[in-house]
Design goal:
The chain has one domain. Helix content is 74%, strand content 0%. The chain has helices spanning 8-32, 39-44, 47-66, 72-90, 99-127. The radius of gyration is 16 Å and the shape is elongated. The two termini are 19 Å apart.
């Protein structure tokens, strides 16, 4: 229960805030570099799983940092729009922009946001009151 209560929740939210920008830089570099490393291909074996994982992490961090507010939907839409913009920019770096990549980005962003919202909503259910924002 300590994981969901009091002192630990603000640390999780701060970690989301502080880790979001470095994660964003890594994802943007990975999508825009003309010759990305193929190390992840050995781990996932499928390009779409890499896209899903990257945007899952971005949306999770952004949603944790933002908190459980109605406007968390705007965070989700922002991450999805970022994925679309990076896919379009990717075509200018000599790589192919694919709709299925954007679909995987969107699914990952939705899953990351859903997990963050579920985590942030658990304290409200367990403690019986609103979680600190």
């Amino acid at each position: 229960m300590l994981f969901f209560r009091g002192k630990f929740l603000p640390w999780v939210r701060r970690a989301g805030l502080w880790l979001f920008l470095p994660a964003l830089a890594v994802v943007a570099w990975g999508e825009l570099t003309p010759h990305p490393p193929h190390i992840a291909d050995e781990v996932f074996g499928w390009d779409k799983a890499e896209h899903f994982t990257a945007y899952f992490g971005l949306a999770l961090l952004a949603s944790l940092a933002w908190g459980l507010r109605r406007s968390v939907l705007l965070v989700l839409l922002g991450v999805i729009a970022l994925g679309g913009a990076l896919e379009i920019l990717q075509s200018f770096t000599g790589r192919d922009a694919e709709w299925l990549d954007e679909f995987a980005n969107s699914l990952g962003a939705m899953a990351g946001t859903a997990l963050a919202c579920a985590y942030l909503a658990i304290p409200r259910h367990l403690v019986g009151g609103p979680a600190p924002d």
